[in-house]
Amino acid sequence: MSHDARLAALNIELPTPAAPAANYVPFVIAGNMLYIAGQIPVFNGEVRFLGKLGAGTDVETGKQAARLCGLNIISQARAALGGSLDRVKRCVKLGGFVNCTGDFIDHPQVVNGASDLMVEVFGDAGKHARFAVGAVSLPRGVAVEVDAIFEIA
């Protein structure tokens, strides 16, 4: 099954790719690699999941925020590849930033929201290396930001 067909079979609605909020581009293709800039939990222009993990925002909410970041990553990838995900060979790496207190330690569980989505959509090609780190703040006060690297055909 193609990646596009799998996305449709899962009834996953992708958000409209967000325009850059500063002086950068949303993606870069270099050779057979696709780099997606950090994506925050925005759905069609609406910022969602504001807050700080460990100070009022729980792990499950953070995980949902990371999943929305992942949906934005996939949306940007589809835009970068001319409207189809079928050139994606694999998700190589995700980088997850969690807006959290200094004593918060469950970063990996939060970023699993994005990681689980990549495997759900791309199957074995969605298994990736990653990092999940804490940050004292993130743009617009969001709970999570995630970037990605894909290998493409």
UniProtKB/TrEMBL annotation:
Coiled-coil regions, chain positions: none
InterPro entries tied to this protein: Endoribo_LPSP/chorism_mut-like (IPR013813), RutC-like_sf (IPR035959)
Pfam families the UniProt entry points to: YjgF_endoribonc
SUPFAM superfamilies in the cross-refs: YjgF-like
Superkingdom, taxonomy of origin: Bacteria
PANTHER family recorded: ENDORIBONUCLEASE L-PSP_CHORISMATE MUTASE-LIKE DOMAIN-CONTAINING PROTEIN (PTHR43760:SF1), ENDORIBONUCLEASE-RELATED (PTHR43760)
Protein name per the record: RidA family protein
